[in-house]
Structures are given as structure tokens and as C-alpha cells.
Amino acid sequence: MDEARENILDHYELPRHRSPLVDATVVQRQDNPLCGDRVVVYLQVVDDKVAAIGWEGRGCTISQAAASMLSEELLGKSVAEACALDEQFMVDLIGTRLNPARMKCATLSLKAVQYGLESWQNRSLDPAHTY
Length: 131
Fold this sequence. Notes:
Layout: H1 3-13, E1 26-32, E2 37-46, E3 49-58, H2 61-74, H3 79-84, H4 87-94, H5 100-125
Antiparallel strand pairs: 1-2, 2-3
Helix pairs in contact: 1-2, 2-5, 4-5
């Protein structure tokens, strides 16, 4: 088995940061209706940085391993850094090429993080708005 596959299986079988955060500033769910994958990310943002992260979900090996890998990478990153991550970042993180369907699985947690942070930023800019 190659190193990338071993890493994917390791993160799938022993996921990192897989639990909700009680004091999360950002909670965002993302679903992939084509395959049934689901992820909910919990972020605690302090001083414009990701201070803590948690997640929960269900789905294929790639979607769940990607969420675990991403959770390790996001700690300490600024909101701007997290929002600037792209598909190529996830491909590099996973360590192997993916077909378009698997790419949706691999980026599910990243989309949840980015949608959640964008909503949080918009709420921060408009404190009078009720959510």
C-alpha cells in the first residue's frame, strides 16, 4: 500500500478532532447529495485565528479522512488563510490524484469551513443583523 493510501486510511480509522465544540463560534453543515456524504464543522475563532476545531460526519473514506486531515491543518491559521485554501490544497493534503466525483468528497469539509467563516465574517460586519 502506498503512503498516501496509508495516510487516508489512518485518518479514516483514527480521525483527528472528531467531536463537536460546545463553545464554537462557527458551526456549518455541508452535504454531498450525490453520494450522501455529510460533514459538520465547528470552529472557535479567537483573534481572527482558528483556535479550536471539531467536526462530525458520515460518508466515504475520502470525505471523512479529508475532514480529519483538514482539521489538523487549520489550527492556528488566520481566517483569511483558511478562506484562501483551494482544491489543490486538498489534493496535496490527501496526497493522490482524484477523479471529479472524489474531488467533491475531498473538498466537502473545506467548503463547510469556508462557508461558515464567510457567514461569520458577514455577521461580524453587520452586528445589527439577526441570524
